[in-house]
Amino acid sequence: MAAAKGVSLNHIARETTDVKRLSKFYQEILGFEVIESPKFGEFEVIWLRLSPVFSLHLIERNPETKLPEGPWSSAATIADPKNLPRGHHISFSVSNYDSFVQTLKEKGIETFEKTQPDGKTKQVFFFDPDGNGLEVIKSSG
């Protein structure tokens, strides 16, 4: 039996050296909207929402942190979207899959597309500007 009851995903946080650039990417590519963010004073944050309830919190990276700086700085990570199906990524579904993929290509975003053996499930993998892995699946609806 799990220790927690009534669990649901609240938000995902991404640290970055440029919260405005990353916010713009998620707004333009996936349709996130900026929502009210608390003011922490010593660092910048932007909170985004994807209706109805998913939130993404972008947090200005602490320049004094001892943690590795995201996927690009990892020696084991290769910046190739072909590696994302078995790597760390966040996945979204869209109803306009083909035009979405075309938009990524028009924006010069490197992608890797995959169709599952059932022939119905189409996926595209790509990176955000900070090297975080993303997947978008064609929704069945």
From TrEMBL:
It comes from the Eukaryota. Residues 8-139 form the VOC domain. It holds the Pfam family Glyoxalase. This is Uncharacterized protein LOC104611672. It comes from Nelumbo nucifera.
